[in-house]
Amino acid sequence: PGFPRTLGQARALDGICELDLVISLNIPFETLKDRLSARWVHPASGRVYNMDFNPPLTQGVDDLTGEPLVQREDDRPEAVAARLRKYKDAAKPVIELYRSRGILHSFSGTETNKIWPYVYTLLSSRIPPILPDEEH
């Protein structure tokens, strides 16, 4: 989940700056739940592993110390499901606010490498390229 997450945060952000573009990534509930539930942490260092995308060399232990990894309480599947439901309820008015302003751009998918080209195209059309010094 990104920012702002609630209508109150969106209104506070309005007091700081005027947004002209908001990106919403629509990812299926089960995909999010599976990804967040695959997160494990080495408590002493804070190193984070993802069992799908960045697993430890040996299952269940930190690569550098060999100490056990733990799953935070809020990363357990049932807690993740509750967090996602709460986020969806809180974020709905934020999404509607930005949609009503005509600045919301939504992208759907399950894989970053498939969504990113569309996001990049949008951003490229809105942000002028930075040219090297010799081209100025």
TrEMBL record:
InterPro entries in alphabetical order: Adenylat/UMP-CMP_kin (IPR000850), Adenylate_kinase_lid-dom (IPR007862), ADK_active_lid_dom_sf (IPR036193), P-loop_NTPase (IPR027417)
GO-annotated molecular function: AMP kinase activity; ATP binding
Domain Adenylate kinase active site lid: residue ranges: 39-74
Name of the protein this chain belongs to: KAD4 kinase
Gene (name only): Ak4
Family: Belongs to the adenylate kinase family.
Keywords, in A-Z order: Kinase, Nucleotide-binding, Transferase
A Pfam family of this chain: ADK_lid
Domain of life the protein comes from: Eukaryota
Gene3D superfamilies named among the record's database cross-references: P-loop containing nucleotide triphosphate hydrolases
